[in-house]
Write a structure and sequence with these properties.
about 25% strand; alpha+beta; seven-stranded antiparallel β-sheet; elongated; Umud Fragment, subunit A; disordered N terminus
């Protein structure tokens, strides 16, 4: 006989509870277990395409804003940098600061709009004078231990005096191999926008 339910009201009524709602059973639940889904070739190809796109985007982002491998072509920076050798170009540092004296930089060459590697010898506001084969920055002779001994700095075959002034956001650059370098002696100070990054040695 099924149990009764008594309400707390003054009058009481009794209604049988269906036996099916109170009977316990040990029978296992007849639940269907879904079969594992197989990843389709189309879905797998989409995942790989996404990975490749992200990898390419990271490579572009890092190469454009952070580090990039560059190969030096030519001898205008010997003996400091060697022809055909590869170096790292640090691009992000120039987002944080302006180029400093003695930095070796990659720049867009004003003479042919190509890329070249030079050394910064004077920055914005500096005066540069080349006299008797020596470089003077703000009237003080520049000490250049990176040059091959006996190297003279001439803007032309004759031993003339040449003067330059770096305006705001301009930099005077020279190659370490002075006889074989086209640099600020020819095209003058270069604007900051032409300097792309610093060479890491």
């Amino acid at each position: 006989m099924s149990p009764d339910v008594t309400t707390p009201a003054a009058d009481s009524i009794s209604e049988p509870i269906p036996a099916s709602s109170t009977r316990e059973t040990n029978e296992p639940c007849a639940c269907a277990t879904p079969a594992p889904r197989r990843t389709s070739w189309l879905s797998l190809a989409g995942q790989w395409a996404t990975i490749l796109v992200l990898a390419a985007a990271c490579y572009f982002f890092i190469g454009h804003f952070f580090l990039q491998s560059v190969r030096v072509v030519g001898i205008s920076m010997t003996p400091t940098l060697q022809d055909s050798q590869r170096y790292l170009l640090n691009r992000w540092v120039l987002f944080l600061r302006a180029p400093h004296r003695d930095d070796i930089v990659v720049l867009r060459d004003p003479s042919d709009n190509g890329y070249s590697v030079k050394r910064v010898v004077a920055v914005a506001g500096d005066s540069v004078e080349i006299d008797n084969g020596h470089v003077y920055v703000n009237s003080r002779q520049l000490q250049e231990p990176y040059l091959t001994p006996g190297t003279a700095t001439f803007p032309s075959p004759t031993n003339e005096r040449h003067s330059f002034t770096c305006s705001k956001n301009e930099f005077f650059v020279l190659g370490d191999n002075r006889p074989r370098s086209i640099d600020s002696r020819v095209y003058g100070p270069v604007p900051r926008a032409n300097i792309l990054g610093l060479i890491i040695r």
